[in-house]
Amino acid sequence: MAAKKVYAVRKGKVTGILDDWVACKAAVDGYPGAEYKSFKTLEEARVYLDENADPAGGEMMAGRSAATGGDRTAVTSSASGKKARRENKRELLDREKRPLGMGDPDGGLVAYVDGSYEHSLRRYAFGCVFILPDDTIYVENGGGSNPDTAQLRNVSGEMLGAMFAVRWAIKNGFQGIELRYDYEGIEKWVTGAWKSKTELTQKYAEAMRRWMGSIRILFTKVEAHTHVYYNELADRLAKDGLVERENIPEVWLMEEMEPWASRN
């Protein structure tokens, strides 16, 4: 019987040592510039990864670990996890040319928000792209797996993205924010055009209305899958959040995190 292989992923949606090809394929499939190899021993895989270095890809995947032989959950320190995500976002910048003229022509803060859901993981996630008045770009994503929240599938991610964006704008001292979204409930639950029929949508609407006392919120509908660059980017960030993030991130100040991109 052939010896069981282990797989080391150095660059991918997740990084680390995985003990089956299915997990490895999920980590690298569709990831530009993925780096991975199979090995017969853990020692060879560890040398390849150079485990003393910070990973250049995402966080470790939940599942069975070849390194421990048992179940584990994705665990990284806050500092190393943030550094890895920042490197991933810089890699995205390196391989893409961002278009001009997709912010607020009057110089306000714009946030593109989107959500995603993966049934096999029972996970939801959001992506946010912030365009500042000086054309600096910041991005963020987050994910979760609360069973009650997951009942609304990608809608949970959509709401979390909008809420994160508004809270970020308030914390960073903006007087107003334009939310660009592709799911109508983001606006209509807040305005009352749609009746909030679940506890989650009620809490979302209540929170957004409360924050309107501190910041002006303008809603702008963007048609989904129409190749609007930053809307598509928010969608991809949300999908990445399904495997990269195990939590909803804390709202941060701009000076606490390097810009994902410098000015255009």
Descriptive tags:
globular; five-stranded mixed sheet; three-stranded antiparallel sheet; 264 residues; alpha+beta; disordered C terminus
Report what the structure shows.
It is built from eight helices and ten strands. The protein is α+β, with helices and mostly antiparallel strands and 264 residues long. Strand 6 and strand 7 (123-131) form a beta hairpin. Mean pLDDT is 76; it is low at 51-81 and 260-264. The chain starts with 5 loop residues before the first strand and ends in a 20-residue tail after the last helix. The strands form three sheets. Strands 8-7-6-9-10 form a five-stranded mixed beta sheet. A three-stranded antiparallel beta sheet has the order 2-1-3, with helices on both faces. A two-stranded antiparallel sheet has the order 4-5. The relative contact order is 0.15. It has helices at 21-28, 42-49, 78-94, 147-150, 154-171, 185-191, 199-211, 229-244; strands at residues 6-11, 16-18, 35-39, 63-64, 71-72, 109-118, 123-131, 137-144, 176-181, 216-221.
How many DSSP H or I helices? 8
Quaternary structure classification = single chain
| Uncertain regions spanning at least 5 consecutive residues | 51-81, 260-264
- What structural category characterises the helix and strand content? alpha+beta
Strand content: 15-25%
Number of strands: 10
Radius of gyration: 20 Å
Task: Please report the distance between the alpha carbons of the first and last residues.
Answer: 57 Å
Mind summarizing the main beta sheet? Answer: 5 strands, mixed
pLDDT average, as an integer?
Answer: 76
Strands of the widest sheet, in order across it, are: 8-7-6-9-10
Order of helices and strands: EEHEHEEHEEEHHEHHEH
> What percent of the residues sit in helical stretches (DSSP H or I)?
25-40%
